[in-house]
Amino acid sequence: MEHGADLPLPSYATVGSAGMDLMAAIDKPITIAPMERLAIPTAIAISLPLGYEAQVRPRSGLALKQGLTVANAPGTIDSDYRGEIKVIMVNLSRHERIIERGQRIAQMVFAPVSQAEWKEVDNLSATQRGSGGFGHTGQ
After folding, report:
1. Strand 30-32 and strand 97-99: pairing?
2. pLDDT tens digits, residue range 110-125?
3. Hey, which end of the chain has fewer CB within 10 Å, N or C?
4. Domain boundary assignment for the chain
5. What architecture is the 20-112 domain classified under in CATH?
6. Per-residue pLDDT for 28 more than 90?
7. C-alpha span between 50 and 6 (Å, rounded)
8. Is residue 70 within 8 Å of residue 56, measured between CB atoms?
9. Can you tell me the distance from the alpha carbon of 42 to that of 97, in angstroms, rounded to the nearest whole number?
10. Number of C-beta neighbours around residue 42 at 10 A
11. Given this model, what pLDDT does residue 5 score?
12. pLDDT, tens digit, for every residue of 76-106?
């Protein structure tokens, strides 16, 4: 897939960055209304080895300062997906927000994954926590 001559490939902002920045590959600015969700193209497609995923995550500054975040965070790109990566953005602010071409809209982190095999059993092993959940351990 051609990325576009004017947009650089995703890259790490610093040597310690966990995620590569993804940019909006759009022809004209897009306005996102409050509480609206849109799939923003990146013009990036990848080929991952089996046993890995790419996670699409919000950029913290964009979320804090503008209320723009990734709706399905983290979004998973499976190892067998070969289409264009799109970022499902949501505007959680009270104001319209504008996305510009080349704007850094999300970050992508690569991670190993495991696949489980189900085994049906009559009982589970006992633990100290047991079935306690949803705040069970306190604040």
Report:
1. antiparallel
2. 999 999 999 999 999 9
3. C
4. 20-112
5. Distorted Sandwich (2.70)
6. yes
7. 31
8. yes
9. 18
10. 22
11. 64
12. 999 999 999 999 999 999 999 999 999 999 9
DSSP 113-129: ---------S-PPP-SS
Alpha carbon dihedral 10, 14, 18, 24, in 10-degree steps, equals -30
CA distance 92 to 129: 36
- Pair of tokens at residue 14: 């610093």
Q: 121: which 2 tokens? A: 């059993």
Confidence grade of residue 1 (pLDDT, cut at 50, 70, 90): very low
Structure tokens at 37: 């969700």
Across 14-32, average pLDDT: 97
pTM reported for the whole predicted model? 0.86
The dihedrals phi and psi of 62, each to the nearest 5 degrees, come to -65, -40
Tokens 């040597």 found at:
15
Which residues make beta-bridge pairs with 21?
A: 107
What is the mean pLDDT of the segment spanning 132-136? 79
DSSP 8-state symbol, 12: B
CA 22 to chain centre: 10
